[in-house]
What we know:
Layout: H1 2-22, H2 27-58, H3 61-84, H4 90-114, H5 124-152, H6 156-173, H7 189-202, H8 204-219, H9 226-233, H10 237-261, H11 268-288, H12 292-319, H13 326-355, H14 357-378, H15 380-384, H16 392-400
Amino acid sequence: MTLAQYAMMLIIGWQTYNLARDGGMSIAEASGQLALIGLFQFLPLFVLTPFSGLAADRFDRRRLGQLTVLLQLLCAAALAWFTWNEQISLPILFGVAIVLGIARGFAGPALSALAPNLVPKAILPTAIALSSISWQVGMIGGPALGGYLYAIIPALPYIAACGLFLLSLCALGLIGNVPQPIIRKDQRPIGAIVDGLHYVVRNKMVLGAITLDLFAVFLAGANALLPVFARDILQVGETGLAQLAMAPGIGAALTAAWFSFRPIKTNVGPKMLGAVVVFGFATIVFGLSTSMPISLAMLLLIGAADMFSVYIRQSLIQLHTPDEKRGRVSSVSMLTISASNEGGDAFSGALAFLIGPVAALVAGGAGAIITVALWSRLFPVLRTTKTFDPPAELESEDTQK
């Protein structure tokens, strides 16, 4: 599924930027169209995520996952048809971005909350690392698949995505029954949503970890501007775009592979903060680079630092949340991830429109570093957390269930 998603999103961004530039827009104006792609994906997620989290706690998470994959398959089929017939346009790309935002809004909480039901809690961090490897393989292979197939026939990436989404549907169908969380019969849906949000706000560990990623990646997102750098700054075309988009995935996959054999056990909080600082520094250097090798190296480092932070953050969030709240807490986490990714894409594109793509990335990287300094003071628990072990009271609750 990740292969298909990243192949599609790379080509959606590339088609959007090229349609804008070929239509007479300047670099800044075309960057603004990339901002709209991010915005149109983020808005459905923002509106629907609280309800999708409740759905993940109330309904079969496997079935929800299958429905979202089916919706993404239909999007890929539509894009393949319009591209093949040379009828692709900015309104079509914007419309599909909205539908993809809806699908991902429900997919994230359901699939994320499903993971702890499939493996023992003791090995969940290792399982997250292994899962991240497959995710990063998708991040690497997806852009390669999209970029190189697009260079052959523009519709091929979307056709390949259809096949990959179909395989994902079959894979989800192979998962057997999993235990469903106990539903409180005296709690209404809105009350359940508020209860999940209240838990996130009350638990400073969960709140700090979630919002750290939100602001750091929101400010320093480089992915949205890769078409700009590939076409107009580094001038490497769609195959170079594929290489640039692959680089963060390679760095992240190598880091996840390392964690699957050598999981972090000590000083997890300070290490997470340090990883975000490296992320911001690498973003600054990438923004200033006009050399393809240096740009690739910085994107590798961005991916490795991001994976380092994600590994720790997701482990802390999952292990510090009761099972009956994981869907709703995961939905809040997915909302912030979307705000940082798709919302960050919109912010980066808009900032590039105002001050240029290079200045936008330099400012964003500096903002990520400043965020770490602020969060270290606002959430001291992030500095003092040494291990992944959840609080004793949470352990006793899970044992009783």
